[in-house]
Amino acid sequence: MKVFKFGGASTKDAEGVKNVVKVLAMFNGEPLVIVISAMGKTTNAIELILKAYLDHDKVLATLIHDLKRYHIGIIDDLFEQNGNSVIAGIESLFEDMQMTLSRNKSTQYDFIYDQIIGYGELLSSTILSAYLNYSGYTNKWIDARELIKTDSVYRDAGVQWQETQDKINTLLTPDTCYLTQGFIASDANNFTTTLGREGSDYTASILAYCLGADNVTIWKDVPGVLNADPRVFETTRLLSHISYEEAIELAFYGASVIHPKTLQPLQRKEIPLYVKSFLKPNGSGTTVKKGAPLDPMVPCYIVKKNQILLSLSARDFSFIVEDNISELFNLLHTHQLKVDLIQNSAISFSVCLDNKFNSFEVLLQQLQAKFKVSYQKEVALYTIRHFDQDAITRLEQNKDILLKQLTKETYQMVAKQ
Ligand code: ADP
Ligand code: ASP
Ligand code: MG
């Protein structure tokens, strides 16, 4: 069994969906589990739908209408016949989504978010499964929420591995091609949960782990993992091999091409991960597996934008030491603020934060009651793995640097954006 994952970029229009069929044709006859993300920027569009719903904004109806038109437009371009039954399926999903919103009584944002956001994946997988069957690529649509069980930490759910393994053992049979959704799962009460934004890579990895798959391929709009994000750096090099440990480091520091949670389950069972281009499926791509850290061994650049640099010092003349540091980290944990870098001196303690859940303002109020606080928003965190002096000099050019840190393999710097 192999697991394939196609992200939003690969299915953003009818041409993309047709290309998926071409890629799959190269593997015809092999049992596959195919994981699909929402089409194009659908997840962002549903976030806006949710905002309009919560704000009682009149734009809600238009946003829903536009998203429906987008999906129906793709179906119209794909199917010469039988498109109507697929459209009926899509309309029924939109009715469900609207029903869920109108019946909602919860005031918990994260809970409501998870009950709505996964419709993107339900829509895309319904269209993909139907189109693959229509094109002769027989597959069975399966609801990922039946396969992957999690705790109830909405928007960042933790996998319950034993329950998930049991579900997969009973529901999936060998020699069948399945098509399912990335990103979504369910909790003990069968409410929808999600694995975090961009979490579909992780879905592929969870399924591969439980199936003991031969390998996982994530199909991207880049030739593989490069030594820098091509949207940010003009010249990049393809990394043909990366060890699990090195890939975990790169993803941890923010190389967004692979979701950070993806690698550990694969490493545990030594399942190779291939990152390949859906535009050039015959290209060699990147293989992540056991072995030397990196081939070629070149500096790797990672940029995380829109971070917050927060510095604390005590209100009296004391130092920031264990007891107040532990209090600070408790608060960071409670507000789900991710710490990307820590630096302390005798009188001040600085952290670079990722404000993923927009909870910084609440944290700030609590901190200001206890500490002298300064902060700077809209800073970028730059990381170079396997740096050399030349790489540092080039990166630092024209930057307003706020903080730097060096370890043996890793250079990090926070600068104004
Ligand atoms: P999808 O959601 O379609 O699976 P993503 O957009 O999440 O794909 O990931 C692919 C994108 O990741 C690329 O278009 C590229 O801009 C970005 N990216 C960031 N860092 C890297 C890197 N080191 N190598 C390749 N792509 C990278
Ligand atoms: N559709 C989800 C997102 O955009 C999950 C994913 O694409 O991996 O975050
Ligand atoms: Mg993505």
From TrEMBL:
Family annotation (PANTHER family): ASPARTATE KINASE, ASPARTOKINASE
**Pathway the protein contributes to:** Amino-acid biosynthesis; L-methionine biosynthesis via de novo pathway; L-homoserine from L-aspartate: step 1/3; Amino-acid biosynthesis; L-lysine biosynthesis via DAP pathway; (S)-tetrahydrodipicolinate from L-aspartate: step 1/4; Amino-acid biosynthesis; L-threonine biosynthesis; L-threonine from L-aspartate: step 1/5
- For this UniProt record, give its keywords in alphabetical order, as a comma-separated list: Amino-acid biosynthesis, ATP-binding, Kinase, Nucleotide-binding, Transferase
Q: Which protein are we looking at?
A: Aspartokinase
* EC numbers for this chain: 2.7.2.4
Q: Which CDD domains match?
A: AAK_AK-HSDH-like
Q: Which organism is it from?
A: Aquimarina intermedia
Q: One Pfam family for this entry, by name?
A: AA_kinase
Q: Which InterPro entries match?
A: AceGlu_kinase-like_sf (IPR036393), ACT-like_dom_sf (IPR045865), Asp/Glu/Uridylate_kinase (IPR001048), Asp_kinase (IPR001341), AsparK_Bifunc_asparK/hSer_DH (IPR042199)
Q: What GO molecular function annotation could you give as one example from this UniProt entry?
A: ATP binding
What is catalysed by this protein? L-aspartate + ATP = 4-phospho-L-aspartate + ADP
Source taxon at top rank? Bacteria
Aspartate/glutamate/uridylate kinase domain residues are 2-277
Q: What class of enzyme is it?
A: transferase
Q: Does the keyword Transcription apply?
A: no
Give the UniProt family note: Belongs to the aspartokinase family.
Amino-acid biosynthesis found in the keyword field = yes
- Gene Ontology annotations for the cellular component aspect, listed alphabetically: cytosol
Q: Name one GO biological process term.
A: threonine biosynthetic process
